[in-house]
Amino acid sequence: MGRDEQKEEREVLDSIFPEEITDISDTSYRISIALDVTQQDGDDSEPPALLLSVTYPPAYPDEAPALDLSTPPNSARYPHLDIQDDKARLLAALEPIIEENMGMAMVFTLVSTIKDSAELLISERQAAAQAIKDVVAAQAEEEENRKFHGTAVTRDSFLEWRAMFRKEMEEEENKKREEKEAEDKKRRVKTEERMSGRQLWEKGLVGKVDEDEFEGPDGLEEIESLKIEA
Asked: Helices (H), strands (E): how many in the chain?
């Protein structure tokens, strides 16, 4: 009874996968599964394909078929699917399907499950890779915007800037005042060097003379001398 069911299922599979199915023996065959994936920008790689090898045990479908998964010979490695790493995961996804369909032809359902599982795995990895790219792009954009907008101003940062600005302005004013006083002093000294005794006396630049210095005959002579000079 098992062998008849196997032949019947094999004929059905021939009509569904006329180009994809290849016989290995009377009880074994291989089905090529083309995966439908969304190619990302800049990805010109060939869509991946898987090979599901099926071997009927004598009691199939009351006993689970022997399954193996591989990729076509010389096929290019697809960036988001590695059959060496992913085979166990994909085949494990078939175990509950086999249990549910025990006693019935199940190969078509197994092929559909493998296709869906592989495509979902690729989609998840594409999304993860795109998320990383988006984060990197967002960080680059934020850094670029920071160059134009500068650092955001907060109350604390403004008060700190204002204190520093006022201190710098005060230091600048003090420096200018000191430079002006030094310049005025130099100019006054030069002017005093050129002034006559009369000009010095009129401008009050001559030091105050002690009254005692004018007491006595010598003091009168000095006063007369100053009058004559005036």
From this structure: 7, 4
- Say what percent of the chain tops pLDDT 90: 43
Hey, how many other C-beta atoms are within 10 angstroms of the C-beta on 129?
A: 13
Q: Report the candidate in 65, 140, 74, 147 with the shortest Cα–Cα distance to residue 108.
A: 65
Contact 27, 53 (CB under 8 A): no
The set of residues, in sequence order, having a beta carbon less than 8 Å from that of 2 and lying 6+ positions away, is: 56, 58, 59, 60, 61, 62
Helix (H) or strand (E) holding 163: helix 155-194
Q: Pick the closest to residue 20 from 30, 35, 12 (CA basis).
A: 30
Q: Which residues contact 225 (CB under 8 A, 6 or more apart)?
A: none
Reported as a single tens digit per residue, the pLDDT across 91-135 is 999 999 999 999 999 999 999 999 999 999 999 998 888 888 888
Distance CA(19)–CA(136), nearest Å, equals 44
Left, alpha or beta for 150 (phi > 0: left; psi -120 to 50: alpha)?
A: left
